[in-house]
Design a protein that fits this description.
This protein is mostly helical and 118 residues long. The protein has helices at residues 26-45, 52-104; strands spanning 6-12, 15-21. It is built from 2 helices and 2 strands.
Length: 118
Amino acid sequence: MSNSVKPITVNIMDKEYLVGCTEEEREALFTSVEFLNRKLREQRDSGKVIGSERVAVMAALNIAHEYLDYRRRNDSVERDFGSGLERIQTKIQAALARGRSSRSVPPTTQPESPAQVD
């Protein structure tokens, strides 16, 4: 695989664009183009916006909103997950400390009973 950037032609809303990308990024680029075209078509087909520039701006605004909403929800999940891990870690450390302290106390010794001889 090569890391060199090569020009690739993509079609966005029936217009060709030349985009530089590495071989490793190629699949992600095409997936992004498909996603963008789908969002642009949705915006255009809604009939609420007229003109390709306005369609592009409204699609970009919707994509930004979806992304920020996703990120906000994901950050919330991360915080919840992080605090859960902290609670578990605290419990583990407390259990380990109890285990260490119980081993450091010498066991009670009982006097040996004399051996019985029959």
